[in-house]
UniProtKB/TrEMBL annotation:
Lineage: Eukaryota, Metazoa, Ecdysozoa, Nematoda, Chromadorea
Protein source organism: Nippostrongylus brasiliensis
Coiled-coil segments: none
Protein name: Thioredoxin-related transmembrane protein 2 homolog (inferred by orthology to a C. elegans protein)
Limits of the Thioredoxin domain: 112-238
Keyword list, A-Z: Membrane, Transmembrane, Transmembrane helix
SUPFAM superfamilies per the UniProt record, alphabetical: Thioredoxin-like (SSF52833)
Entry's transmembrane regions: 12-41, 93-116
Amino acid sequence: MIWPRLQEARQILTLYHLLNGLISTAFLCTKGISMICPWIFVADDGKCEIDSREREILMFLAVVIAWKGRKATNWLHYINNIFLFSKVANVMLFLRADALVGIIYLLIVVAITVVVPEPIYSGPEKVTYYQGSELFEELDKDRKSFFVIQFYTTWSPDCRHVTPVFAQLSERFSLPNLRFGKLDVGRWPKEAERFRVNAHPTSRQLPTICVFRDAKELKRRPIVGEKRRAIPFVFNQV
């Protein structure tokens, strides 16, 4: 995972990150504020101390976040992992303390997720977006250049997390004979079959990054094993 520079850190100054930060720390905040705690945890007799079971859940959350952080493509992906698993832990903690409060918290999480989605990357990039058979035709037409192609879908979270990394790499390394491109295999399933990319909702091959030259595939990540299962691969700038 690559830690951000000050300019990049401004990307978290959004309503999405603010609201998710608040609901991710909701349990600890409500337990720690003596004026609020008795009103929320009525079923728990207004106890504002974190008991041993709650401590175990929080420790397990810390372990999961640390483990998932090793596989994050960048620091924004890492923060989103923190939000995701913290909200799951908060649901468990609130439901354990008071079922009604837990249900209300879950509804708030769902509402925020729907109304305030994760921001889409809008930074600079030197990427060509191909439609239909355009990529196949371009590979056949320009056989001297290297093509770094990302096969993606708009609904895949992993594809969204890789987007800023791929864009930044294209900005740094794009040359007349080193071209970066993307193809939406969710929209063009026939092209997914042509380039042997599994675009099924349960697929572990998304996103797939391929390097082409002379209309031939040179490298692919993730690699597909003997049992047709994708071998996990973390795509970052390192």
